[in-house]
Predict the structure of Rieske (2Fe-2S) protein.
Amino acid sequence: MATAAEYGLGPNTFPRGWFIVAESKELDAGPMAVRFWGRDLALYRGESGKPVLLDAYCAHMGTHLTASTSAMIVKNGEQIEGDSIRCPYHGWRYNEHGDVDDIPYHDGPCPKSASIRSYPVVDNMGCVMAWFDPDGREPDYDAPFLKEWDDPQWVNWELDHLGVLKIHSQEILDNMADCRHLGPTHGAPSEYFENEIKDQVYVQRQGGPMQLYGTYLYTTTWYTGPGILLSKQVWGDTVVYELIANTPVDDGETQCWHGCLYKGSAAEATAEDKAAAKEIQAGALEAFGADFNVWAHKRPALKIMQMKTDGPFRTGRKWYSQFFATPEDAAAIRAEVNGTHPTQGLISPAEAKHSIDEGLPI
């Protein structure tokens, strides 16, 4: 396990961006105690249906707002009031902005110094996505969304929860440039390959025969910020969007999720389509699992021994570094890396007549 500083990332330890912090349906069971970005957090759904993410600890006596299961206020279902939450120890109430707005045994004004941090959150494509900026700035781009999610022809994913991997997210992001692992690791050697960078968006276009599917696979894959990957994949008559999400837990540890959005055969997805979608997601997870297994058994690649016919690792790492940098430095990084980045020895998507990008949000 290596840290951000060891990869030369900084000055911040954790990147800014949109990240998955839970599957939406997990909140149906009640508030959750979660940990991301080196901090304990309280996640719950307010009575309006809005998810709320706060720093975990009540300023009064340091009680975790959502870790208690034994307090009577929790057992009685009285902890959530509107979009606010009461501390299970003394009942101090925090609103969705992280401010104390009621103390049951106090008639005066609530102390402003008791406020805790609140994080921008959206309920999006079956996921709870939160914006994290170590310096507390507001979002500077929107959380990614696929319009197909709301189309009844498409079968929505139910997330695979892959747990915490003791590896820095940098190693996961390296896959975007890594055309040469696709044959040995996945049985899907690229016949064409190219990267494109547009500010916070990092795109990979590639295609080649895939052993697992027994056919030719075309993919356009993109990160929107450092934590959420979406990939349009086409083979035969099959069209799928794959989701791979990584969220830093602590410095050098990453929690991962996976899912597939599958295009059904009719205007409204049938039972057969839903069964096929489960098989497709299982197959995609098997393919992703090959990466996961490699990451779990490798030492950190703090410096890549770059071959001229490798993909553009250094450019990809430079792109990733913007999310750890100051806004001024991030702008300079974007100016440096924006554009198209071919890989020596492989033809371009244009030469291969790659044509699956129509309607993509990139």
